[in-house]
Amino acid sequence: MPEDPKNPANPPEKKAADEKKTSPDNPESFRFTEQFRSLLEEGVRLHDQLEAAAMLILVNGPGDWGRLRSVVGQRRVIIASERLAYLAGAAEVGFSSVAVNLPPSSPYERITEALLESVTEELLTRGQRVIALYGLFEPSSVDSLSVIRLSDHLARLTTRDLRELDTAIPIETLKLVINLAVEIGQEGREGKPVGAIFVVGDSRKVLSHTRPLGFDPVRGYSKHEKNLFDPRVREGVKEIAQLDGACIISEDGTILAACRHIDCSASDIVLSKGLGARHWAAAAITRKTKAVAVCVSESSGTVRVFLNGECRFRIEPQMRRPLLWRESTHD
Predict the structure, then answer these.
(1) What does the DSSP 8-state code read for residue 127?
(2) How large is the C-alpha radius of gyration of the chain?
(3) What pTM was estimated for this model as a whole?
(4) 107: closest CA among 146, 134, 78?
(5) Tens digits of residue pLDDT in 103-153
């Protein structure tokens, strides 16, 4: 039948409304399919059987929270999403929520970030089990389920963890520098957050790939006067950390130079979204040398440890007991 020009089958207004509804900024609700319902019911069964602390559901759009609540009952549920707008209304039915700031990223990375944010917000604690539901094959749906033990990921930093780095740098020196970085991440300086980067080991090669930014505050001091094993030196370094550039530290804990610009290409480095120039520089210098780099984020106080161009550990100093988050390269 010919289309009536006065009453078209798909008027422009309807097309515009449809496009608006399904655009990235106006996504459809994540699909509450029979498959999702079956997965959700299995998650509930496992939750009860394993006495899990909560169910974590990663969504890529707004949801029918009331319908979801009717299936899970009064069990604790944490909704995670890349956008705060997708979480609107979840709290009204008693769901907790966390934002995952890693778009675009793999499901594993998003789950990892959601769990870490949940621990940071004290929604979960170390040692608990969580039932995670997420989209593995289809981002707009929830099609996969995992049982996660937080103790497999979260821990206090130990000597054993540092030995796993497989580096020639003495363990005591690494512990000293990482503990210093954690203190800087916790305390900041004069009430303000402070970012910092320490490059430890393979010093001659590291210095050849860096250049001074200007005044070097440790120049002219004796080796003894700039060794980090002296508590007074560590306090002084907290002041230096406010300045731009990296501190270069030898295997015995001596600060060889400060305020150094790292001059290495990061073209072959892959890091999570949202990391700044310090993190890229830390990854680049450890790819080029055999050094270990310890980086403090100015925005969050998070400490990351880099080796061979990769982030190996992530430590959250702002929590009551600083926790170690094991980074992974899983896709």
Answers:
(1) T
(2) 24
(3) 0.58
(4) 134
(5) 456 777 778 778 878 887 789 887 799 999 998 877 667 889 999 988 665
